[in-house]
Amino acid sequence: MSPRLRVLPLLALLAAAACDDGPPRVNPKDHAEGLYLKGTAEYLQGQFEASLASFAAMKQLTPNDPRLPAARGEVFLSMGRIHDAAAEFEAAVQLEPKRSTNWSRLGFIQAQLGKVPEAQSSLRKAIGLFPNDYNALESLGELHLKKGEHEEAVRHFTLAANVTTGEARSALTMRALEVLTQQGRHDEVLKQATRAVSQGVRTPEVLTTLGDALVRAGKLPEAANAYKEAAGRSPKDPTLWELVGEIHMRLDKPGDAISAYKESLRVKDRAVVHVALARIHLAMQHREAALEELDAALESVSGQDIRELRELAGLLTELGRKPDALRILASLSAEQEYASDTELQLTTARLARELKDSTVQQAACARVTAADAGVQKCP
Question: Burial of 202 by CB count in 10 Å (0-12 exposed, 13-18 middle, 19+ buried)?
Answer without folding.
Answer: middle
